[in-house]
Amino acid sequence: ICIESDVRLIGCQMTMDVFGFSKDDFIDEVDIGGAATFLEFAAEADIQMFI
């Protein structure tokens, strides 16, 4: 539902490194970035969800 609704998904690079995940462990629609990537996007978004 999120992908169909054009929700942007950002996976945290540092958390991925800690747990040993790679981009291949996620669905293709997930962007990978750090806090700066999220904050830049979140500043312009109407709704944000940080999990």
UniProtKB/TrEMBL annotation:
InterPro entries to which the protein is assigned, alphabetical: DsrE2-like, DsrEFH-like
Short name of one Pfam family: DrsE_2
Organism: marine metagenome
Protein's UniProt name: DsrE family protein
